[in-house]
Amino acid sequence: MKSLKHILSLFVAISLTFNISQAKKPQPLRLLYWNIQNGMWDGQKDDYKRFTDWVNKQQPDICVWCEAQKLYVTDTDQRERETEEECLARWKRLALRYGHSYIYLSAHPDNYPQLITSKYPIEMKKKIVGNADTIVAHGSSWSQLQLGKKKINIVTLHTWPHGYGYNIPKDQRAASAARSEGDIFRRIEMEYICKETILQQKNSKKELWMMMGDFNSISRVDNDTYKLDKDSKRFLTHDFILNHTPYLDVIKQSHPNEFITSCGGNARIDYVYMTPKLYAMVKDANIITDSYTQPIRNPQNISNFYHPSDHRPIIINFELK
User: Fold this and answer.
1) Helices 181-196 and 236-244: crossing angle, nearest 10°?
2) What are 149-177's pLDDT values in tens digits?
3) How many degrees, rounded to 5, is the angle at CA 274 between CA 271 and CA 277?
4) CA angle at 127 for the pair 237 and 219, rounded to the nearest 5°
């Protein structure tokens, strides 16, 4: 009897140890962010097959797409604006090809929304367009992903893209750009977005937050490459983030001694920021350039269009603990 009790005790101890080790096993999560240029204009010819085949190979759990709305007739720069309903219907069809069932569209005062697709349900916390004093030109969103007991806050954005300021008449744009009013406007957008999201939280440094998008601006952390004056207004947008929020620049933190362009030219304007607690769970983070994602200038010289996009994707792998 004593021997049987001893065996049972050992069995219970082994079971408890197994259960504890299972409970502590990190949960993998894979994020894919990309500005896909005009709703993936390049993919309209083949009904987005190359695009969704490539995404499917990456096996992402969450995707964030900038410029999600279709804007042009196939292979032209003739305007063809897709309605919100058409945009959502198209993405529901495309996302199923790479295994995502959930679709979330950001606020978009104009026709350049961000869109999230996911394997997991996400709660939309807030859609951000600005107020009477501050305009968020392309809109922004704050969503929340629940994975077990963990809540991951996801902020998406796409800031003003021009050197001149917002709503400036055409004949005044050159002078506005010379005064860096586009950079000043982006800085105002960024402060508003942060105040509507992470800066509302008292303990955000200890929470799981990420903010990503096409920032249309460069950071002084890359100034070894740009060699601009330290007082350049081009740094205003990211200076606000670095000086007033707990966010870390994931690509720079992961590749501190490298400069990696995120677009067709030599500039890093796409970023993923994370709070320290979430960044501690990052396994690897990369801007991806491969045989498909390498930006190639459109041979027809249509506007500033590239194939497949004028931006490069970012992929981040997590081990959530």
Assistant:
1) 30
2) 899 999 999 999 999 999 999 999 999 99
3) 160
4) 15
Q: How far apart are alpha carbons 248 and 276 in whole angstroms? A: 7
Structure tokens at 247: 């966010």
**CB 314, CB 293: distance < 8 Å:** no
Q: Strand 122-130 and strand 114-118: pairing?
A: unpaired
Q: In this predicted model, what pLDDT tens digit does every residue of 229-254 receive, in sequence order?
A: 999 999 999 999 999 999 999 999 99
C-alpha span between 116 and 25 (Å, rounded): 27
* Joined tokens for residue 167: 């709503």
Where do runs of H (alpha helix) occur along the chain?
2-23, 37-40, 49-58, 84-97, 173-178, 181-196, 223-226, 236-244, 250-254, 276-279
**Tokens 């077990």, located at residue:** 148
